[in-house]
Amino acid sequence: METLRPSPVQWPERFPGMDEFLTMSDTPIYTRSTDYANNLTMEDMAKINELAQLSPKQLIENIKSMHDEIYQLGLREAKEMTRGKLLGIFDRDRVPKRQP
């Protein structure tokens, strides 16, 4: 039987008051859950019902196609950002400031 001893590297001791501070903040870990069912539109519910009717294989294919679309969108966005940098539209020093 292996016994685990406390390791300050693997399990660092938290600072006093850290837990209280983290629970007060809106970090994703401690964000209070909201009732998402109240925020859904009829279109959202229709899409959920449509996805619920798919077989697991069809659902995986649907997710893969969404992933591919998102990847292509990212590629297009990267090209546009590169184009913008080459054209100098993101260079703040070149844009003259307006005098009020």
From TrEMBL:
InterPro entries: DREAM_LIN52. It comes from the Eukaryota. GO terms for biological process: compound eye development; negative regulation of execution phase of apoptosis; negative regulation of transcription by RNA polymerase II. The gene is Dere\GG18473. GO terms for cellular component: DRM complex; euchromatin; Myb complex; polytene chromosome. It comes from Drosophila erecta. Belongs to the lin-52 family. This is Protein lin-52 homolog.
